[in-house]
Amino acid sequence: MTMYGVYLGRFLKIKRVLFMALGYCLSFSVVHAAVIPPTAGPHTVSFSADQITVKDDTTGYSAVVQVESRLTLGVLVGEPVYTCVAAWKLLSVAAGDDGFDAGLTGAAEGSFGAGKLPPSVLRDITLSDVDIAYPLAPGLPINSSSLFVCDAGIMRAAGSDKPSFNFPSSPLWRELFWNDLTNRHEHPDTAKKLYADMLAAYETRAIQNSNAFSWSGSHANKWGSSVRSASINLWAVKSWLHTVLQEQAETARRKAEAVAKESEVLVDQRGAVNNDSFDTFMTAVYKKEEAKQALANLEHRKIKVPDSARVSREQMMVDFRNSSCADRASLAALNRDWDAGSRMQQTLVGCATPRSAPVYNQGTLKLTPRKY
């Protein structure tokens, strides 16, 4: 063999070794990126308000609401743990003919601003099942692929600065991320990779900026979130509008009766018909009948509030399920402000245990998905 052949053989061997080393490093970096530490976080990030129109199918009304939230992410015994809390504002209500007939608006859809509602009515409106989609990393848009969605729990009254009542969630890896494009959850290995990257991004964000909640504060330094879905109970508005319409019709009836009584003298002393009095009298009679008909229609349409709409916010909190290892009373005591998510997850450190093998079976463990 010539010296050239010897050198060529050595070069090829070195090249193979280098390629093997490079391949090993690349494969290690991919695996390392998806490695979930036994414990990490919690990391809390604030999100700017998102606006959504929510329809109440039971009343036929709809409302435009604004939701602002915070998300806390972490890992306990190698499992994902997260908590989100939120507050909301009611911006307007569309009540169709009820809103239009009450004279609250001139719009065909019967829309009017929330400022026209009495405080007692506003307090009784409940927003629930608020699913919020969060970005996985800074600058990454919230789209239909690999969605991270958190239910915000029991929302407080509209306009309150207090966050929602919620407990930590810890779903199985195979149930952590949803993909609308494939219409199924992401594979556990994919979920771990996504969550590991998400943890790193949220840790950096939490260190850089831990904005406190403020409706009036600037959103420039907050990430954006997207309210994916929500439910609203507008029976308090419907009941109030029914009362308003009833009072208006009753007032119109009494006024018409008074005018008709004052206009009963239709013939003057000379026996001539007083045209002005006659016109006033006939108009009053027409308005009285119109008001009586309106009252009859309202009585016929008398609303019956369904039992589900009578459940108070306080009762929802009492019935709210806690699936974590910490006792409900301890978590509820921590569930009082915008830092509740971090405190609750720190409390779980002392009691969390790994899920029993195999990991992806039924999952009736200390940290289990929260369903309601």
Walkthrough of the structure:
Residues 1-33 form the signal peptide. There is one protein chain. The protein has 372 residues and is an alpha+beta fold. Among the domains are: 43-170 and 220-233 and 309-352, no CATH class; 237-300. It has 9 helices and 9 strands. The protein has helices spanning 3-33, 96-101, 119-124, 188-208, 235-262, 275-300, 313-319, 328-334, 340-348, and strands spanning 40-55, 62-76, 79-94, 111-113, 126-134, 148-151, 178-179, 184-185, 226-233. The strands form 3 sheets. A 4-stranded antiparallel beta sheet has the order 1-2-3-4. The longest helix is centred in the N-terminal third of the chain and has 31 residues, at 3-33. The model is unreliable at 1-33 and 358-372 (pLDDT under 50).
pLDDT averaged residue by residue? 75
- Can you summarize the main beta sheet? 4 strands, antiparallel
Topology as H/E string? HEEEHEHEEEEHEHHHHH
Low-confidence stretches: 1-33, 358-372
| Residues in β-strands, percent | 15-25%
Terminal Cα span: 77 Å
Radius of gyration: 32 Å
Task: Please report the total strand number as a whole number.
Answer: 9
Shape: elongated
Total of DSSP H or I helical runs spanning 4+ residues = 9
SSE blueprint:
Layout: H1 3-33, E1 40-55, E2 62-76, E3 79-94, H2 96-101, E4 111-113, H3 119-124, E5 126-134, E6 148-151, E7 178-179, E8 184-185, H4 188-208, E9 226-233, H5 235-262, H6 275-300, H7 313-319, H8 328-334, H9 340-348
Antiparallel strand pairs: 1-2, 2-3, 3-4, 5-6, 5-9, 7-8
Helix pairs in contact: 5-6
